[in-house]
Amino acid sequence: MAETDMDDLIEIIEKEGSLEDIPLTLPMMPVRDVVIFTDMLLPLFVGREKSIKAVEKAMAKDRYLFLCAQKDSEVENPKASDVYEMGTVGRVQKMLKLPDGRIKALVQGITKAQIKRFIKKKASFEVEIALVKDLELEEVTIETEALMRNVRESSEKILALRGELSGDVGLILEHIESPGKLADLVAANLRLKVEDAQILLETSDTVKRLTKVNDLLARELELSTVQARIQTDVKDEISKSQRDYFLREQVKAIHRELGEGEDRFAEVEDYKVKLKKAKLPPDSLEEAFKQLRRLEQMHSDSSEASIIRTYLDCIVELPWNRSTKDFLDIEKSAQLLDKNHYGLDKVKDRILEYLSVRKLNPGLKGQIICFAGPPGVGKTSLGQAIAKAMKRKFIRISLGGIRDEAEIRGHRRTYIGAMPGRILQGLRQCKVNNPVFMLDEIDKLGNDFRGDPSSALLEALDPEQNTEFSDHYLNMPFDLSKVLFILTANMTDTIPSALLDRMEVIRIPGYTREEKQTIATTHLFPRQLKENGLGRRHITISSGALAAVISEYTLEAGLRELERKLGAICRKIARKIAEGQKGKYAIKKQSLTTFLGPPTYVDELDQEESQVGLVTGLAWTEVGGEPLYIEVALCHGKGELSVTGQIGDVMQESARAALTFTKANMERFGIKKEAFEEKDIHIHVPAGAIPKDGPSAGIAMATALISAFTGRVVRNQVAMTGEISLRGRVLPIGGLKEKALGALRVGIKKIIIPEKNRKDLFDMPKSVKKKIEFFCVKELDQVLDIAFEPRQIPQPGKETDGVTEAQ
After folding, report:
1. Distance (Å, rounded) from C-alpha 341 to C-alpha 348?
2. Which helix (H) or strand (E) holds 657?
3. Any residues with CB less than 8 A from the CB of 379 and at least 6 apart, and which?
4. Distance, CA of 509 to CA of 501 (rounded, Å)
């Protein structure tokens, strides 16, 4: 193996001997990564066995050998096709054997030669050569002289940029008068590719060779200039880094003298690493580093430093770019929903539709879903099921009773104890930016002098705005568009219209008794057995007992109280078993009083018989539907109207409208005019301790008034719901299913509803429609025909005294 030592000075020396003394058959030594030019002196490290033999043969004879470049330096055993035919005859000036077996030989290029024949021998390579002479110029022209001067100047500039220029080199370049020798010397010192150097060696025309060298010098000069500039920039940067390092060390020394220690600097570096890993947007990152620089300049024990640390902790812990991958298998999601929730087909269909759209369009902006329904019907568990189906994290916060806007949007950092709002706190807790985020009890938000929290939610819940949600504490935009917000409410009436407009409301009605019994059998009772350490071998409950628990011990649209009652039974059985009373307990209807005491609710109407001036209306409350009794009594007075029973403004207006309709049609109903002038009218809605309001008691009040004035008896098995206009039209209402369930619970068989609510019967459970007969009416006359006991309504002119005395 032969390698060049480029650090040694390559120089021109006088040739020993003459060309006639050179044999035409010489040992050949291939060299790698270098082309040997004439008059070139350089050391070679020889390692390959055949090359060592070639040098030894040359030293044993006349010291001549043929040097040629390899085409591929990776080849270890080159053949004739692996070397260039044009090479240089060299003379070994010195040879030194090294301890590792290699040879260091000092070789001088004598003249160019070309291989005529390749002689292969076992010990070494030998070749038959022909000497090649360059075409020397008869005289140096002005153009050639200018070319030589340009070559000298370019060479000196390159050597100066490399830091290799010395006075000797400059003198040598200046005193070389032969264009060929100048071209060879410069080519030998240029860092050329083997292919380019070989082309120069094979160019016999001196002017052409010098021109090629000049072109190569121009390219090398440009490269050396760029390299020198890069090195200068790097050196300057290193110098700046070193200066900064020394300054930081001095600052550390000063702080050590002040007793602040090393922890503070480690803390700053730790924040830098965490901020870079958090992948904040550029503007936010700049603000964070600004606060970090402020922290670096403060005393570690100052109160402001503590505030900045808390702020930076919040920034680095927020999930700026961390999210979970959605799992959108519609079939498995449907199975999961069916497993955990009985019934609620429309709700589950809507959830599966959302997941399907999400699967087809992953870039869909987060929709806002609001589950509205009574307590205990499964609103929260549905949100958890969605998160489980999508394999997202689930976070829930309750908004009930929140009155301060800062609870949603955060406090400004100028206040002591400031912190982010509930939304960012939730994201910080779950550590991903695309959870299923449930905002519970949205209808319980309040407002006062501290602001309106519902207004603060508008930005967070608007898909067009929440890509840059601004929290007062964070004071930089945060992207909420990947969050799936799910809201829950018992009633939508109290939700501000601007907020309600941003969400899709999915109503979850209460459960029928049959649905409750099925859910209790398949879910609630097994769960209570497990929670109380029991099994089917310890306790069974009959269907009759379960039905009795539902009807006599609970009065709700949901399932919470039912589960509590089943838990109470299981706890009493667990105590008996723990006390050593063995055996299997079978819970029958007759034994319920032993475990739960006497029945809490009587499953029957409060009015045992039909009466005058008493009508059963239907109300829809946060806990479901229930009967609403309207009582009217007439007593001597001056025709004044009083309404009691904690009635709200809407119901009071309904009462006045019902009275006005009755007065306007008194002749048709056979009521004397004096009845309104001589009698006070008292409308009462028990129980008086419970506030009541809403627009659905109008026809019940009108029916009760007409009954009281005419003496007509109202059927106690008929309930009604609907608003009334001054012209007697029956107007639509809401919450029909819940009201029907409440009526069924107390044994009502017939319900009068507005004609425009006929469409709601489509979603009414079949079990309800089998037990209740619904009457759809448009006018109050139709209501009276159904509600009153059979008796002919007096015709105009056949007046009665129309007075029912108060009892």
Report:
1. 9
2. helix 649-664
3. 371, 373, 488, 508
4. 21
DSSP 693-711: --SS-HHHHHHHHHHHHH-
Do residues 468 and 479 make contact, with C-beta atoms less than 8 angstroms apart?
A: yes
Q: Take residue 476 and report the two structure tokens written for it.
A: 């930089």
pLDDT at 39: 82
Quote the pLDDT of residue 603: 57
Is 417 annotated in some ligand binding site?
no
Which residues make beta-bridge pairs with 636? 679
pLDDT < 50 stretches in the chain: 1-17, 792-807
Nearest to 786 by CA among 732, 712, 718: 718
Q: Note the pLDDT of residue 10.
A: 37
**Kind plus residue range of the DSSP H or E element containing 806:** none
Q: Map residue 629 onto helix, strand or coil.
A: strand
Q: Which of 124, 155, 696, 707 is catalytic?
A: 696
Contact 754, 722 (CB under 8 A): yes
Contact 609, 661 (CB under 8 A): no
Identify the bridge partners of residue 630 per DSSP, sorted by sequence position. 615
Cα 457 vs. chain centroid, distance in angstroms? 19
Would residue 707 show up in a list of annotated catalytic residues for this protein? no
Domains 2-132 and 611-787 share a fold: no
Tell me whether the omega of the peptide bond preceding residue 113 falls within 30 degrees of 0, making it cis: no
**Is 728 annotated in some ligand binding site?**
no
375 annotated as ligand-binding: yes
Q: Out of 739, 749, 756, 771, which one is annotated catalytic?
A: 739
Domain boundaries, the chain: 2-132, 263-317, 330-375+387-507, 513-596, 611-787
Chosen CATH of 611-787 out of 3.40.50.10790, 1.10.580.10, 3.30.230.10, 1.10.8.100: 3.30.230.10
The SS3 assignment for 89 reads strand
Beta-strand relationship, 585-587 and 614-621: unpaired
Dihedral sign (CA 321, 325, 330, 333)? negative
CATH number of 330-375+387-507: 3.40.50.300
- The CATH class given to the 513-596 domain equals mainly alpha
DSSP H stretches of helix in 480-612: 497-500, 513-519, 525-531, 543-552, 560-578, 592-596
Return the structure tokens found at 383.
């949100």
Residue 374, annotated ligand binder? yes
Residue 331 structure tokens: 């079939």
Token couple for 74: 């990776």
pLDDT per position as a tens digit, 383-404: 888 888 888 899 998 888 788 8
DSSP state of 401: T
CB 117 within 8 A of CB 50: no
What is this structure's pTM?
A: 0.59
Tokens representing 79 are 């053949």
696 is known as an active-site residue:
yes
Topology at the third CATH level for domain 2-132: 2.30.130
**Cβ atoms 97, 103 nearer than 8 A:** yes
- Residue written as tokens 């001589």? 678
194 marked as binding residue: no
